[in-house]
Predict the 3D structure of the following.
Amino acid sequence: MTDLAGMKILLVDDTPANIDVLRGILSKEGYEISISMRGEAALALVEKNRPDLILLDVMMPGIDGFETCERLKANLNTRDISVIFVTAKTELEDLVRGFEVGGADYIAKPFKREEVLSRVKTHLKIERLVQDKESLNEKLQDQNDELMASQNQYRIILEKSSDAVFRLDAEGKILTGNSKFHSLLGFDAQEVIGKPIMDIVNSEDPSGIYPQIATRRFGDRATLNLKVQFCVNENSPIWQERKFYTLLLDSYGIWNLPNNKLYKKGTEKKYLGTVCIVKIPS
């Protein structure tokens, strides 16, 4: 058995002896083998049970292998299936014709076991890589959709909150803030986004208060009801009434683990930043 065991191969040949030889070689590798004796029947079978690879005889009654391959490649549902021609016709013009109609490779009759296995394995490996890539792309798309939904939900909650909310990155710079946060201090978003939080905090002990604002802690150890004196934008009308605004701050560290559980094994811990909720003291 190989790591490709279970992959599907369709054998298309009108000579039972050829089918028996190929099936005997391939079945020992654990491949799932299906058989068709005619090109027309093969086209119908492929629509119902898509194989990963087709071994296609050239000379057959009815439509020959070349026409069968052309029809496969003209069909959106089957055009990506690799076709290996099985032929005794090894003249250059026949080989060129096979590649022109969409064949990926050829195996010459009489069959040599090593050649059959080598060519089949090569194309099945390529097919497996394509399948893995498509599966990964689907997973990435699902994750992207999930992330987008989460971000949209976050924005709605953020804007509808009665509290001022902002988020810091891992370096303590302001990433986002809701309209309540900006209106409280009189800053437009472009004036504060990307700036260190301490640029708008007035404190006699910056090094002492910063770790509490940009905390890495969460849950019961998070920063709660911390009094912070924020600077008011001197270019805003608010500045005429007050230069600073003392507010209560709750801060929660954000990590790259579900529910911020740092004890989870096998995952690299990474601090992503802090979410801060600002409230007006009652």
In short: The longest strand covers residues 244-255. Residues 8-131 form a domain with the Rossmann fold fold (CATH 3.40.50.2300). Residues 24 and 113 are 10 Å apart (CA to CA). Strands lie at 8-12, 32-36, 53-57, 82-87, 105-108, 164-169, 174-177, 223-231, 244-255, 271-279.
